[in-house]
Predict the structure.
Amino acid sequence: MSAPAEFRTTIPVHEHLDDSNLVVAPTRHPWRWATSAAVLIVVAQFAHGLATNPGWDWPTFAQYFTAASVLAALWMTIKLTLWGTILGFALGALLAVGRLSNNPVLQVVSWTYIWAFRSIPLIVQLLFWFNIAYLYRTLSVGIPFGPGFFSFNVTGVISGFTAAVLGLALHQAAYSAEIIRAGIISVDPGQVEAANALGIPRGRQFFRIVLPQAMRSILPNAANEVISLFKGTSIVSTMAIAELFYQVQVVFGRNGRVVPLLMVATVWYIILTTFLSIVQYYVERHYARGSARALPLTPWQKATAKYREIRDNGVGAPRGATR
């Protein structure tokens, strides 16, 4: 039995809502804004002090920042870093292979080297190589415990620069060996077993399977070591080698302007460390290709993509709004 007509009510099955009338209420974060404001105030105060405090003596900083003596010392620092890195990581790779080998002699020798050079402070190693002529005035090359083919004067061969490179490289090798070894053993051994089952040669296994995956673990720590070595070159100033920090000391020892000359060295260290960090980012990104389907955008790609979005669409709609 149907209801009377006066009691019948029409219920719409679907009512269209106008999206333009919707209001998006953003989530409020008062403490976030308060923290950001406090941090910005501190940063502004620091920047104001840098700009207005006469003790920083920015005219003296500008005078010596690109001085010929400072640039020559900067180049000396770069050379020490390059040679220390190349020789240190080359020897470190050999030590890592020795520690991972099945030869007990190589294992013991590699472990002993790493233990010894990580135990001795860098400045002691540098001074030892700088004064090596007190122990060995001449060195000869020949048959062990037999006749020598030729000999040379140690003082004429191992200069201050050579002694600094030897000290930095041998010290760096002990740390880089452990970094490389840790990266290699981080690779799943099941992949090597599968490669052996497929008959892939060992050389190809290492360079095509093990090394690309190990580099993802090696690179961050290796980059930190290179940056530490770059800053650690300031220790060779004790050997009177005209690297950046030594040259800055010489200059402020003459004119007494300590703070601006220290800022010269500081800014150059920051610039080169930033450059090394950028190189590290792109090298890590290169070796991360096999770990993700699509690599994340670089900062430059993000900036260009945002520029295209603004250019094509104008000012973007607020986050959370509907169109």
Notes: The first strand starts at residue 138 and ends at 142. The longest helix spans residues 68-100. The CA atoms of residues 87 and 169 lie 6 Å apart. DSSP finds twelve helices and two strands in the chain.
